[in-house]
Amino acid sequence: MTSSSWPRVFQSQPSTVTARALLMLCLGVAAMPAWTAPPNLEKWKPTIVHCSAGQSLNQALAHAKPGERIHIQGTCRERVVIRRPVTLDGAGSAVIDGTGVAPGPAVAAEFDGLVVINGVTGVSLVGLSVQNAATNGILAARGAAVVLRNITVQDNAATGILVMDNSTAEAIDSSTQSNRLGFDVVTSSSLVLKGSFTSSHNATSGGDLNGESIVELRGAQVALSDNQQFGLIAGSRSQLAIFGWEAAQGSTLTASGNGVAGLGFAGDSSLSTFSDSVITATDNGIGLLLGAGSRADSPPFAGATFVLHHNDVGMNLRPGSSAFMIARLNVHDNGIGVLVDQANLHLEATPALPASIAGNGSNVQLTFGSRSTIQNVSIATPLVCDSTILSRGTTTCP
Length: 398
Hints:
Number of strands: 35
Mean pLDDT: 91
Radius of gyration: 30 Å
Distance between the termini: 104 Å
Helix content: under 10%
Largest sheet: 22 strands, parallel
Number of domains: 2
Structural class: mainly beta
């Protein structure tokens, strides 16, 4: 095929019009300045909401761009609804206060909140207090994803932090206190705790975990204290977990001064420790309570530590529950150290993971068909067993 047979559009000789256009383009580029100011400098200005001066946070949110950071000053008295990915930054002093603020329209109070993140991901709340809500303090629902950093949630009529309906929340250096319930994670949702996290002085429990949901400690120092019922209670196939991530190493969980139990599990829920975490329960009614169908697991590679001191009962296994612990175990100065009723108990010590049950009013009691494997654990007195018990290991029923 010769060059003459190609379509004219590919012919190599430029027309006079084309050559003139190229010359004008080159001259135009050469004449342009190296930089011109943006036509609208307003979009580079930070958004600041002066709530104490009467400005509305919701109005700022209505005009916010996705990814925008909104700086809050003063006390905002309004129900805040977040519908796009933004960051609300209170610089450690701003407050969202529900005093006199009506609940949302046509929403049941238990599914409402003073700050609502509904179906939105990429939301962050930073350096804020959320308080005095007539309903919940912070609500994340319908697949929402939110990061809470340096947040205080307090004095709310219902739950401080409610995460529900396949939502996720990450709480970093935050606290929830003096609410009816500290936090609630429900219906296939998750709460990841990092840094310092406290839940205290709540009228029922520090935390509630239900509906196949999970609370995970990832390098966190968690304190659940002085709640009227439980430090944390889990049910319906939910899990409190410390996984084997490197980021989870050194996590601690302390439950103290809670009326019913420091940590409670029921309904096929579980406590799982897979890192060198330390779990401490002191001065509770029961330190660690395992109800029907629940389980506590700590394999030897985790290197976990359990400290149960000054509780009415250090560890209580109710009918249908089980515990498998190869961990550092220190159960001292409780009314009863370990009480097992129609349940399965496996306690094992190794040279690297010593275990001791001593100084309790009664150290270990096994009743009503329970099964025990106790291997190399130092127990100061003989086991107290009824005739239905099956026991094996280095320490067995008399």
